[in-house]
Amino acid sequence: MALFGTNGVRGIANEYIVPELAVNLARCLGTYMGSKGTVAIGCDTRISGRMLKSAAIAGALSTGLNVIDVGIVPTPSILYYVRDFADAGIIVTASHNPREYNGIKFIAGDGSEFSRDAEKDIEKIYSSGKYSIVSWEKTGSFRIDPGVNEYYVKNIIKSVNAEAIRGRRLKVVTDTGCGAGSLTLPFLLRELGCQILTLEAQPDGTFPWRNPEPLPEALTELTKLVKMTGADLGAAHDGDADRVVFVDENGEFINDEVLLAMMAKYIVEHEKGPIVTPVSSSQRMADVAKDAGVELYWTAVGSINVARKMMEVNAVFGGEGNGGLIFPKHQYCRDGAMGCAKVLEILADGEKLSELAKSVPQYFNEKTKVPAKNTHTTMEIIKNEASGLGQKLDTTDGVKIWYEDGWVLIRPSGTEPIFRIFAEAKNQERAEELLQEGLNIVTRAEKLSTLK
Ligand code: MG
After folding, report:
1. 284 belongs to a structural domain
2. CATH code, 17
3. What's phi and psi for 12, nearest 5 deg?
4. Residue 153 CA to ligand 1 centre (angstroms)
5. Range of the domain at 326
6. Does 330 share its domain with 385?
7. Of 263, 332, 341, 347, which residue is least crowded by CB atoms under 10 Å?
8. Which of 357, 373, 398 is the last residue of a domain?
């Protein structure tokens, strides 16, 4: 039984993600760990968070695990804590999903997200229903640690050039969307000597102002306030603050792919080493790597794939084109607050964010999605057809077809019955053309798949 999607177990709270599920998943973890060790358990600001966190705590204790309740925390904050103080962790979060959702994600002892193999082991235990329930005197110990976010913020400050940032006294508007980042980002910026204006900085699981996903259209208030106050930049998180996106000093949204390449460029200019990104990312990353003379590794989509590859090749930076930036010297996971601190470090040199964004190569990106009926068969047909085109192919995740002047990627979604199609080219017209080409390939293959 496949419980885990691209990012943990997700669904509507109290419908699919019910307390019983949280109890049993935590019991799976206890069973997996042989009823030994300490786990940190936390949640984001969602209304159902405390209910599910309490259930997970009960489940873990019943298998003899010792539990540290870390309260409301961003995902990168609990990951950092687990690495330093626990043997594993559970975070109750649905990241950027709408308000009614929640989810459960496991954290490995090294502070990384659980690997696919470990998730499969958990699924096996779950399907068997056989948990290591201990006798009464062996149930786990429990304590609360209220200092987790403070510890996390302190360590981000140590990982950037805080002196230089403080010297600039940057004016920053934050929009933490009433999510878990409300408890970290404003405090981090205060410690970094910024002048701060906060929007939606009260933790509130009804997400009264915007959806937890920081899409450009959801950030109109942030844009307005940056312009009104003459701020240097605006920063926004998703619900669990592992992602960060920006608007520049003119209130213009910084394209996620531009942000990723801009950060990669800055890092490899200071430290030579490989960089890692999923196949869905922009050619900008390849250009940055080529210019700096460093290796670029493409992975399957999903931050865990990027992080694992980074460990393997000893990368200096990695990330996804959705505001998910990974700084291995800090930790091997997407970290929104760390990404923000790093952007401030770049700005401390005196440049403006809009100028920095212009310093990376320009490309045009298009994407769309179409419903998938016979995902597997269709994908096989697409692979066959693509290999007959005589173009360079990459089948790391779906099918990516490279042309001389751009590429198109077709991949089945890991969470929904859809195909995602991405295209990129040096001009808008060609990007649209390539997207259409991708659409045609999918439509033809879907038709053929029904004949099989
Ligand atoms: Mg997230």
Report:
1. yes
2. 3.40.120.10
3. -75, 130
4. 18
5. 160-357
6. no
7. 347
8. 357
* Distance between Cα 242 and ligand 1 center (Å): 5
95 is catalytic: yes
Measured distance CA(85)–CA(309) in Å, rounded: 24
Name the phi and psi angles at 245, rounded to 5.
Answer: -130, 165
Q: What is the pLDDT of residues 81-114, one digit of tens each?
A: 999 999 999 999 999 999 999 999 999 999 999 9
381: CA distance to ligand 1 center in Å? 33
What's the pLDDT score for residue 345?
Answer: 98
> So what's the pLDDT on residue 268?
98
- Pair 170, 282 in one domain: yes
Q: Which residue has the tokens 């140590």?
A: 158
Examine the pLDDT at 1 and tell me if it is beyond 70. Answer: no
Output the CA 416–ligand 1 centroid distance in Å: 17
- What are the angstrom distances between the C-alpha of 428 and each of 74, 229, 271, 422, 433? 37, 33, 33, 13, 9
Q: From the candidates 48, 62, 77, 95, which is the catalytic residue?
A: 95
374 pLDDT more than 60: yes
Q: Are residues 347 and 373 located together in one domain of the fold?
A: no
Q: Which of 332, 357, 382 is the last residue of a domain?
A: 357
Whether the full predicted model's pTM is greater than 0.70, yes or no, is yes
CA distance 259 to 313: 23
Compute, in angstroms, the gap from residue 100 CA to the centroid of ligand 1. 15
Å from CA of 318 to ligand 1 middle: 16
Q: Is the domain of 136 the same as that of 171?
A: no
- CA of residue 386 to ligand 1 center, whole Å: 33
Q: DSSP characters for 111-123?
A: SSBPPHHHHHHHH
3-class secondary-structure state, position 297:
strand
What's the pLDDT score for residue 243?
97
Q: Which amino acid is at 181?
A: G
Same domain as 182, residue 279: yes
- pLDDT of 451: 80
Distance separating alpha carbons of residues 184 and 151, to the nearest angstrom: 10
